[in-house]
Design a protein that fits this description.
Strand order of the largest sheet: 2-1-3-4
CATH architecture of the largest domain: 3-Layer(aba) Sandwich
Bound molecules: iron/sulfur cluster
Structural class: alpha/beta
Number of strands: 12
Number of helices: 16
Oligomer: single chain
CATH class of the largest domain: Alpha Beta
CATH superfamily of the largest domain: NadA-like
Helix content: 40-55%
Largest sheet: 4 strands, parallel
Strand content: 5-15%
Shape: globular
Order of helices and strands: HHEHEHEHEHEHEHEHEHHEHEHEHEHH
Distance between the termini: 27 Å
Mean pLDDT: 90
């Protein structure tokens, strides 16, 4: 991608982000009811032989009632290993699909079917098939934030935590189509030195975190370490200017880094749900979001009431057609074999 194309793409991303961020976040309900709802949910989970998984961007009260909290791949692996027959996935639809692909015999429930993902929506399976026709023989690497159908058309999946290892494992003479996140793709080009053909997709939340947000906080908190998720719109713009105290990390990487770091103050450039987990895992340290409006409305659709209803009523079961699941599983297993 040329610098002109990149600037145009980033401008488009910012415009879409400002529209998407205007979508209201669903109200959480009355906090006074949370303890009783959480007790009801734990009792139902026991009764229904269910494990509750929550992504790090979920509401604090939903994270607190879960058996496990983490990123999408960690949760899918935990789902496959869990002895329970039912998985309640507090996250978005592509995550529940991934859990179903890796745990085909288990019941996977998503508490709200409207919990989608603007990044996964930025490429359809038809668009990917057309892109492959235009680049015959290229290797397709898909970020895990994709639908099952897109994964099934891919050679490898990757997460932000292992994308670099996946790219580096592909022979250097092979063209790579990387999708759907352009900011992650640009960062991968930079750290691997590989020329990638990048799909111009984006997450509206991360694209909305701009270099100006980061620069302002860097001036206000000069002693703080900077933690940046590679999906951020700011990644390609600020990382060159950042010093040794800037770190490009996946959500799980941020949690591990904060736990082990000697630093006591951090600027966090990702969805604000991670702040709850960071505060729990690294107590006594200070975490400042560089953009407080970096809120994923899809993640926040999951409330305690919906988790309770999901367990009580068995809604909403996620199914992936067997042939799609088999091909998508192959792309996921190739990734797992590398990193
Ligand atoms: S934060 Fe972005 S990538 Fe994650 S679920 Fe929300 S829209 Fe998708």
């Amino acid at each position: 991608m040329s610098s002109t194309d990149r600037a145009a793409a980033e401008t488009t991303a910012a415009a879409r982000a400002s529209v998407a961020i205007a979508i209201p976040v669903a109200p959480p309900g009355n906090p006074a009811t949370f303890p009783a709802l959480q007790a009801e949910i734990r009792a139902l989970a026991h009764e229904r032989d269910a494990v509750i998984l929550a992504h790090s961007y979920e509401r604090p009260e939903v994270q607190d009632v879960a058996d496990h909290v983490g990123d999408s791949l960690l949760l899918s692996r935990l789902a496959a290993a869990a002895p329970q027959s039912t998985i309640v996935f507090c996250g978005v639809s592509f995550m529940a699909e991934t859990a179903k692909i890796l745990s085909p015999r288990k019941t996977v429930l998503l508490p709200d079917l409207a919990a989608g993902c603007s990044l996964a929506d930025s490429i359809t399976v038809e668009q990917l098939r057309q892109w492959k026709l235009e680049h015959t023989g290229a290797v397709v690497v898909s970020y895990v934030n994709t639908t099952a159908a897109v994964k099934a058309e891919s050679d490898y999946c990757c997460t932000s935590g292992n994308a670099r290892a996946v790219i580096e494992a592909i022979p250097s003479d092979r063209q790579i189509l990387f999708l759907p996140d352009m900011f992650l793709g640009l960062w991968l080009q930079r750290v691997t030195g590989r020329k990638l053909t990048i799909w111009l997709g984006e997450c509206h939340v991360h694209a909305g975190i701009r270099a100006a947000d980061v620069e302002r906080w860097r001036r206000e908190e000069p002693g703080a370490d900077l933690l940046i998720h590679p999906e951020c719109g700011c990644t390609s713009q600020v990382i060159e200017a950042a010093g040794d105290d800037a770190h490009i990390l996946s959500t799980e990487g941020m949690v591990r880094f904060a736990e082990r770091s000697k630093a006591d103050s951090f600027l966090v450039a990702t969805e604000v749900g991670i702040l709850h987990r960071l505060a729990l895992k690294a107590p006594g340290k200070r975490f400042v979001p560089v953009n407080r409006e970096a809120v994923c409305q899809y993640m926040k659709l999951i409330t305690l009431v919906k988790v309770r209803d999901s367990l009580r009523d068995g809604v909403y079961p996620i199914e992936v057609p067997a042939d799609v699941a088999a091909r998508a599983r192959l792309a996921l297993e190739r990734m797992i074999a590398i990193a």
